[in-house]
Amino acid sequence: MRETYDRVIIGAGMYGLYAAVQSGRNGYSTLVIETEDEPFKRGSRVNQARLHNGYHYPRSYATAAKSQKYFDRFLNDFSDCIHTDFNKVYGIASNFSWTNGSQFKHFADNLQLVCEETDLEPYFYRSAVEKAYRTIEYSFDAQRLKAKLLGQIDPGICGFRFGTTICNVVKEDGHFIVTLDSGEQFETPYILNATYAGTNQIHDLMGYEHLPIKYELCEVIICDVSEHLKGVGITVMDGPFFSIMPFGFTGYHSLTTVSNTPHYTSHDSLPAFPCQEEGGRCSPGHLRSCNQCKHKPETAFVEMNQMVKKYLKSDIVIRYVESLYTVKPVLKTSEVDDSRPTVIRQYSQNPEFYTVFSGKINTVYDLDDILR
Fold first, then answer.
1. One of this protein's Pfam families, by short name (predicted)?
2. Residues 6 or more apart from 122 whose CB is under 8 A from it?
3. Sorting pLDDT into bands at 50, 70 and 90, what band is 337?
4. Was domain 3-371 assigned CATH 1.10.580.10?
């Protein structure tokens, strides 16, 4: 028997669960469909866990301003999920940086961000880093965010289907008929595509235009650090550098580098990688979890650690714990100015179909207008 929902949300990451919470609060019966066996298994978990406040985008004022706009609201709404008890330092590299120290300070001042010059001595080699600034930037805990959002969802009005995929969607009398690989069917006048790396895969299924995306198969290193770095997060800007910062409340740090975090890059409209040719169930038309794949790339920890050693003093030691992998999509237009816009587009009016595409947790509030 075909079930009917006011809304169907595809994807159970941050954006999908937030949409489910708001839809339920607005009285809409909602179904969330997720290909993984639980929420937050991909992009919402596998990232730096940075709660952006704007500092990271000195070449894209619009992206920085949007991040700053929602910073306090997100911090207030999810305060118990945000690790705030550490110092965040931005270092500006002496060479190969798109932005110098005075430009970074001017940029932060224009946004009225806290940006206080601090001594290089505790962390950086003076020959490698021009300036260092103390900033206000925090780390979110993905597991706590997931638990909080799930706790806000009314099970009487919202249902879930995990570990399943959509194999067909057709329009019929102002509704979508959604068919899962299990054979289940659902009828709805409203679909939100919140699949992030799977955006164009859903568009392909629906016959909608693809977003201009490139894909990076990325590795985030989870590491332990020297005692004097445990209460510190460091980002070196603005070019082929690195970030090492607390990973939520785990007690570990995340380590990423611009050059080595992406192992493979695909410029196709659907994500095609060499590892897919090794076998398994992953394909350009249907991404699977990289973390469970035996064909995922070998860790680049050695290369990342070598990068860090060029800038951080020798008494700072980084110890490898584990690697987390996921596919990160990036709008091709972002290659010009490093912008990270939140894209929300409507592809059908009756029935309604929307896609949201964003790589920043705290711009989730951009969804509010289409969730009322």
1. DAO
2. 228, 313
3. low
4. no
